[in-house]
Design brief:
- The protein is mainly beta.
- Strand 4 and strand 5 form a beta hairpin.
- Helices cover 7% and strands 47% of the residues.
- It has a single domain, classed as Lipoprotein localisation LolA/LolB/LppX (outer membrane lipoprotein receptor (LolB), chain A, Clam), CATH 2.50.20.10.
- The longest helix has 11 residues.
- The protein is built from 2 helices and 12 strands, in the order αββββββαββββββ.
Length: 208
């Protein structure tokens, strides 16, 4: 079973905006910060997020790992910084295979995707609209539910890949939501970053 890696999860959330044409309700209209709580078959962890249209910072705390990820879509880069010091690693977004590795990513293939509005609700005093997204694969149907604020911020997500995908249900909630501008320094590495070593599947001749 695949583990949820913080760097890939950060890219997963950023990449949702890439489907704004297919899923317009997933393109926030304001910058924001909040605390994500991710529950999956592999366990639970928390992730502080700072979001802007082209920059995202996440601070992830999970057993045995505390790491900061900064995604700079404007530069086409991602930086990975261990909290408390250590080497900063850099990877281009083009090199990152987030959509095939992030939890529930199978639910977001635009060519096979359909969505519908289910209804309205209230979460933490905020009115939200609920959507269902379904995509079809050879393994079966992937299903995801989103509860989205009027600013298009997803405050709850339930992702249930098809049984044949080999992953279990993932629940993601956003707590302590605050909207407004985010400080520029949050999205700087503050140190020299080295290129991330190539993984075996990224090496020439290694295939996909």
């Amino acid at each position: 079973m695949r583990m949820i890696r913080p760097a890939l999860l950060c890219l997963f959330f950023l990449s949702l905006g890439a489907f704004a044409e297919e899923l317009p309700f997933l393109k926030p209209t304001v910058s924001y910060t909040g605390l994500r709580v991710i529950q999956s078959p592999e366990g639970e962890f928390r992730q502080r997020v700072f979001w802007t249209p082209d920059k995202v910072r996440t601070e992830t705390d999970m057993p045995g790992m505390a790491v900061v990820n900064i995604v700079r879509e404007d530069l086409g880069l991602m930086w990975i910084l261990p909290q408390g010091g250590g080497m900063c690693l850099e990877q281009t977004l083009a090199e990152s295979d987030a959509m095939s590795l992030a939890p529930g990513a199978e639910a977001y293939e635009p060519e096979d995707m359909d969505f519908r509005e289910i209804g309205t609700d209230t979460i933490d005093g905020r009115p939200v609209t609920q959507y269902e997204v379904v995509s079809k694969t050879d393994m079966g149907d992937n299903r995801a539910l989103f509860w989205v604020t009027e600013e298009n911020i997803p405050v709850r997500m339930e992702v249930e890949p098809a049984a044949g995908e080999g992953t279990g249900k993932v629940l993601i909630t956003l707590e302590e939501l605050e909207t407004g501008p985010q400080a520029d320094e949050l999205f700087e590495s503050g140190m020299e970053c080295r290129p991330m070593p190539a993984m075996p599947h990224q090496m020439p001749g290694g295939g996909n």
